Amino acid sequence: MAVSYFMGIDTGTNSSKGVLIDDQGNVVAQYSTSHSMSNPSPGHYEHDAEKDWWGDFCIISRKLLELSGIKADKVKALGTSALGADCLPVDERCRPLRKAILYGIDARATDEIDQLTKMYGDEQIRKWYGRPLCSSDVMPKILWIRNKEPEVYAKTYKFITASTYLTAKLTGNYVVDKFLGLASFNPLYDPKTYRPVEKYCAPICRPDQLAEIHEATDVVGYVTPEAAEETGLKEGTPVLTGTDDSGAEAISVGVVSPGKMMIQIGSSVYMILGTTGLIDDERLWREEFIVPGLCDISAGTNTAGSLTKWYRDTIYPDAMKKEAEEGVDAYQEMMKGVDEIRPGCDGLITLPYWAGERTPINDPQAKGILFGLTLSHTRAHIYRSALEAVAFSINQQLKLMKDHDIPIDQIFVTGGGTLNPVWMQIIADVLGISISSPAVNIGASFGDALMAASAISYPGFETYDSLLKYIRPDKTYIPDMEKHEIYKKYQKIYDDLYEANKDLMHRVDELANSRSAAD
Q: What's the pTM value of the predicted model, to 2 decimals?
């Protein structure tokens, strides 16, 4: 019996990953490549869309075919996902007019957030979002281009996000999925008709400058001859709408019904919990999820892997040198002695706001803090405190979700962070809940491939629930409840630290930005 294959490719903050699965859900090939994120000025984070997004895509699609030995005509459908929600202006030929402004980590549009909040009023903003406007919203980013780069704005054919860009390059069609479009471009689309709302678009952009909304698993086009030549894929291969990387990763670990949860630990942390309906809490986010009829409540931090990378590059040059000279992984070297330190790091608590913060504080001006540092603390204490800080942030947000009486019956942790078992045990101990890593821990690209199969209703992939048979736990971390009780005391201090220092953070941010402007 002939075997069919499905491809999924995901573009993230620091890398892109791809996978090829067969019609039994087995992974037959995977490949990844890295790219850089530029930080041209404080609070500004960008990608080169043509090089980092499309360039990576072409490399990966060709490599998957090469490594697997599968002919392109055996690939029956292609699913994509990408970091969201970013803002990329392109011309009529889908050529980027500037570098892409990244998701919530990019905090440049604070003036535009204030401008829009004054324009519509706090009450209307909360009706739309269930929270204040924040750096994760695309509307302020488009307005920033309109205000700060009018020459780019005037040339723009479409304002799109990364998933839209990839699908447009593959098919020539500009589309965005409902999950990402309604959540990130709110209120520019009508949540009932999914069409742009002219009166809300008017101060921002023309309605025709936005992509069309479709379901994530809709087949919205086919690989063009030009794209086939660049990617190695067969002309005419069905292409899905595509979606947000975190949404695709949630699908990859079975977030297809209420009570299922994903904690994605990559460059940042993203948490998605399936719910029966929309839940308003201005400290968190809520959306209609990818799965029809399912909603979610979600949360996101700005640092996790990016924080550990900063420690590697700044505090552990010897570990990097050893990796270069002896091949010893720098992150493994950094863990020496960390598991011997007691919970709470002997009174050292870190606020991990190295790049501002998204939920639950939604403050792009937030700053990192090392609190309680003494002469007795070592480098290992400082690093463990960073790992605990990410766990405290996750728990802070999980407690908010529990406040809404949302049942949680399964938590999968995904992403590069799961390669560190000590870190995963810290998270379980802080949460006081068992967490599991998935047997297939490839991430969003695996979810993309599963959705590609379901998009064409391939036998065995007809429904979202049918995907669960391809998703199994690997390692489960059971909390040490004695340590959990210790962490509860430190959690309270962690929760109070931001409010106690918020005004000082804002003052120092204003000073730093005023100096940058003067320079």
A: 0.84
